[in-house]
Amino acid sequence: MFEPPPPLPATDASGFLPGPLGLRLDEEFLSLSAINGSRSALDAIFPVGNARINPDGWSLRVRPSAAWTSGDTPAGEFSSVEIGHGLTHLRLRGVEALHFLGQYTCVDLFAAPLRQVKTARTRLNQYDCTIWWTNTRDVHLLIARSLAQSFCDHLRILAVRNEPGDSFKHPRPSAPEAPNRRG
Amino acid sequence: MTRLGRGGLIDRSSVLGFTFDDRPLTGHPGDTVASALLANGRCLVARSSKYHRPRGILSAGLEEPSALVTVTDATGSTPNLKVTEVPLRDGLKVNSQSAWTGLDRDAGTLLQLVSRALGAGFYYKTFIWPRNSWHRIAAPVIRRAAGRGRVDLSFDPSNYDKRRRHCDVLIVGGGAAGLSAAVTAGRAGATTILIEQDHVLGGALLSSRDNIDGLPAPDWVEEAETMLYALSNVTVMPRTLAFGHYDHGLVYAVETPHSDSVASAILWKIRARRILLAAGAIERPVVFPGNDRPGVMLAGAVRSYIRRFAVAPGKRAAVAVADPAERADTAAALNEAAIPVVAEILPGDRPSGTRGRLHLQGVRWRDATGRHHRTSCDLLCVSAGWTPTAHLFTHLGGRLEFSAETQSLLPSAETCGPLRPIGGARGVLIAADCVDDGKRGAHLAMAELGIHKSLKHGRSAPTPATKRGFESGRGSTFIDLQNDVTGADVALAQREGYRDVELIKRYTTLGMGTDQGKTSWTNCILEIASMTSRDPTEIGHATQRPPYSPVSIGALVGTETGSRMIPIRRTPFHRIFESLGCVFQTSGDWLYPRYFPQPGEDMAGAVERECAAVRSSLGCVDMSTLGKIDVQGRDASQFLSRLYCNDVETIKPGRLRYALMLREDGYVFDDGIVARLDENHYLVTATTANTSSVWRHMLKYAQVVWPDLDVALTQVTDHWSSLSIAGPNARNLLQALDPDFCCSRDEFPLAAVREGRLGGELPARVFSASYSGELSYEINTPSGFAETLFDRAVEAGAQWEICPYGLETLDVLRVEKGHIAPGTEIDGRRTPGDLGMAAMASTEKDFLGRTLLQRSALQAGGREQLVGLVPQDRKTPIPGGAHLSDQPVDRNGCAKTLGHLTATIKSPSLGHPIALAFLKDGIARSGDLLWAHSPVAGKSVRVQVTRNCAYDPKGTRLHV
To answer: Considering chain A, what percentage of its residues have pLDDT values greater than 70?
Structure first.
């Protein structure tokens, strides 16, 4: 047995998006597994809708009986299915990365619950995707591999329609007592 | 030029050039097209749609009913824009519309001679005979005469976008109430969005001389704006029009960014927990004879043009304003512009007419004592009162009620869902009261959201109207200036029984068009009340629907145009197929390889070559689009046994079986392969078109119907790429790809599956299954290795001249074998028996759809069954979509139908055309001669009924 060759990317995402926002989009392979198990067994690890981000990996409970994890399979009675090649992992980096995406997602990425879990399964225009972030300048996206190239093309189209002059980008001083509503 | 020497919120340091009807004019940044036209002394800007009467500029805002123009810029032309809503840009070309030769000399004015014959609904009564005259003659002529501008059909290069926002509080309108509400909500810590249709905040305060909190109104606006920009939780969106209010706090708004922006328009979908509607109020014109003449202008608009745009809209003014304070303010504004006020027409007076051909030259009236007056003037400032702009309140079913106190339509409740009207939108008109009402409205919203405690503020009461209004003299009065609806039209509708306001609207067209009755509805209600001696509160109002003001279709569509309409799915082999010159086609969401032409080859040639390669040696095809669902668990066998109608529990590990899935109603839902990878581990496939449906179907049964079964489902369609190698040399290629792979007929027979590493390194699952009728293996590998697999297959298969093939060839091969496909044969109306697969439905177990499959109607004879067809002469192509009959068509082109074709090809392997068809009692008719009639192709072909499998019916080629 030999090591398999490195997987080839699904998209041409490797570099800056057009437009003045200075966003960088890159594809990185993410080894990902679907963990299936009983509801109670999964509940013991993380509740439905919850996500866990740590340096070793990322996990998200996607359904009552299933979770996705990029780390090791947790101990317990779980079956595991590799799905990493079916979901393309994109990283969007830049000062306005999360704000840019937040303009197009159905869910409010800056709502209090999401600011805590920093993960959302949502729809970005016509694309179902999973988004998570450690900070608002470094956002990870998972998108079905077959849609990934179209999605990247779509982000490029959106990026050129945004500009620093947009109202959401107006640099504004923050009052000291003002709550941080921008993530 | 009528530009004032000083004042105004315009930038005089720069000059913008534009044209109106090809005449070059100039203006300044900060101008609208309306103010620039007035500054250039241009008062006549349009002709009315019906009578072609000369029309000027009535207002200074979105309520403008008359001054519609076509505006052309670098992105093309847009008709029917209100001159009052278009910010002036350098290079704009503005053209009048609805004039047959020119604005000054419009041949359409001849219609005024027959205006008595053109009353409301005249076309319902007039063009009755001859019968077809309406469509052929009258309608085209009327449409041409009444048309407003022309749609630019050229490509629109504009960039449109659709975006979303969420907030605690959305404030619609940046006037006094809106600004104070935004400051209050922002300071309380709520995420706040303030949207304002204008490019500057302030609304009516920009042209007001009121003092607020001890500051002149414009200074107060500036201070509020500064406060908002200091709050990081407040977003201010100027140039944004909220045009629709929908369920659950959703407001649609369209932003028109500044002219040098890369986006032409942005549609915002704003989801707010509370919406404060601070859209202000619209001034109501005075209804009297000749009230539509250019030079008659709303008093508020006059103040705005003078104070905000530094334009003198006239040289001698008369004032007919009901409210004394506004009358005084208007007179003061005219005084500031050095326009003499030559007459004041007071409430209780009866304006009886105006004079002037293309522009107002004078007005006459009778005072309360009955004495006649007349004066020369070129500007008449009118105001009968104010109507709250509560359209968004009504979009979700909120009703407006006529208030005798304010003489206007007011929101009937304080709330409509999460929307709360404040300030002018609920009839509060005094600036200081609006500020207070905005503040209190915001406090109430904060309390409702739990952001702070309820402070139990009282609200400002709506501002009462003056007790006495203007009365109209005799003559033709215009109620709806946009649609040329007169008082006589409303009276006619009443006489003819159209008394309900909704019927009046439709019969007279009052309140229709881009205006949507902004300046006309209240006057219409008062007119009806006056004519019928009814109480105005009984009359009601017509339903107001989104959009509040016209929105470009481009903004509604956004980026989803052309090939971007639907997200395209690409297979993992897409890139490599592109490099081979593949022709792609969309198949559902997928961009699928159609055929691989060689230089100079057309599709037919390519398909023939690809078919020959598969039948004679080796071909490969991308099967990645097939749905793949991983099924695991102790009860996986039972779960699948219940879902599929044939026996799948007896599949041994390492083997696979073709399986049929029925719907609950007994009809065939989908087909595919069930492969048993391990004791409790299966992989099932679904057809490309049905993948999502099958996945949802399986999830529903696993989670909802049979939650007691221990089964785990994972969709792995995108994870596994699939390359099918087919042909007599398929086994040789598999051996070449991995010499250690024991793939002899005995070790790896048909209907087997094996997992491992191809060539010792490439993770793979190989399925011995065939769709082409040839020896075939479907090699699945994780999608990231798809190109590696393809490269290796092409390299190793070169010795057998491996030929990639596409969807066209795949279809030809499957029709030759009589295999079914979703959409054509699996069309939602077929039982297993109809498809010749009755034996697959197990009689020894229960399965989904079994009970309803036993229905007598599904078991009775006379059902259509899948058969094959060949032309009797073995030459003539059978037209696609043809209907089958045992009779030739009669003189009318009709024949009794016995069935229809589902697929037709010219078989390269057999050398003649063949087809698949559904035919009544088809299996029993084998050998019969029938007609295949195609009314579309205009052909009838004599065909013979055969078995559906035309190629290698015994399947010997699968077992070589």
So the answer is: 88
Q: What is the pLDDT of residue A49?
A: 76
Taking each helix axis from N to C terminus, what angle separates B603-616 and B807-817, rounded to the nearest 10 degrees?
Answer: 60
| Dist. CA B536–CA B764, nearest whole Å | 79
Place of tokens 């979509």: B881
User: Across B453-521, where does the E strand assignment appear?
Assistant: 478-480, 485-486
pLDDT at B344: 95
CB contact under 8 A, B762 and A5: yes
Q: Is the ipTM of this complex over 0.85?
A: yes
Q: Are B209 and B217 in contact (CB under 8 A)?
A: yes
Interface with chain A: mutation pick from B192, B587, B783, highest number of A CBs within 10 Å: B783
Instruction: Give the DSSP letter of residue B482.
Output: T
| CA neighbor of B611 nearest in space, from B803, B778, B817, B875 | B803
Pick the CATH number of A12-29+86-160 from 2.40.240.10, 3.40.190.10, 3.30.1360.120, 3.40.50.410: 3.30.1360.120
Going B8 to B14 to B15 to B16, the CA torsion angle's sign is: negative
Q: Give the model's pLDDT for residue B147.
A: 64
**What's the pLDDT tens digit per position in B26-58?**
999 999 999 999 999 999 999 988 888 999 999
State pLDDT tens for residues B535-549. 999 998 888 899 999
Q: Cβ contacts (< 8 Å) between B569 and chain A: which residues?
A: 144, 146-147, 150
Residue type, A42: L
Mutation pick from A106, A150, A156, A180 vs chain B, by most beta carbons of B within 10 Å, is A150
DSSP state of B617: T
Q: How many CB atoms lie within 10 A of CB B128?
A: 11
B240 to chain A, closest Cα gap in Å: 11
pLDDT recorded at residue A180: 47
- The residues pairing with B362 across neighbouring beta strands, listed in sequence order, are B355, B376
Name the percent of chain B lying above pLDDT 70: 100
Please report, for chain A, the start and end positions of each structural domain, with discontinuous segments joined by +: 12-29+86-160, 33-82
Burial group, residue B152, by CB count within 10 angstroms (0-12, 13-18, 19+): middle
Phi, psi for B186 (deg, rounded to 5):
-65, -40
Distance to chain B for A152, nearest Cα, Å:
11
Query: What is the distance between the alpha carbons of residues B293 and B282, in angstroms, rounded to a whole number?
Result: 20
Alpha carbon separation from A125 to A62, A122, B237, B622 (Å, rounded):
20, 9, 22, 29
Both tokens of B739, joined, read 């010499």
Give me the domains of chain B, ranges plus CATH numbers: 1-153 (3.10.20.440), 159-282+389-449 (3.50.50.60), 288-383 (3.50.50.60), 475-538 (1.10.10.1100), 574-625+722-814 (3.30.1360.120), 627-715 (3.30.70.1400), 861-959 (2.40.30.110)
Residue B767 β-bridge partners: B753, B778
Q: What is the 3-state secondary structure (H, E, C) of chain A?
A: CCCCCCCCCCCCCEEECCCCCCCEEEECCCCCEEEECCHHHHHHHCCCCCEEEECCEEEEEEECCEEEECCCCCCCCCEEEECCCCEEEEEEECCCHHHHHHCCECCCCCCHHHHHHCEEEEEECCEEEEEEEEECCEEEEEEEHHHHHHHHHHHHHHHHHCCCCCHHHCCCCCCCCCCCCCC
Enter the pTM of the model: 0.91
CA dist B564 and B789 (Å) reads 30
> What is the 8-class DSSP label of residue B154?
S
A79 with B719: Cβ contact below 8 A: no
**Chain B CB within 8 Å of residue A14 CB:** no
Cβ(B276)–Cβ(B434) under 8 Å?
A: no
Q: How confident is the model at residue A58 (pLDDT cuts 50, 70, 90)?
A: confident
Mark yes or no for CB contact A163/B262 under 8 Å: yes
As a residue count, chain B comes to 960
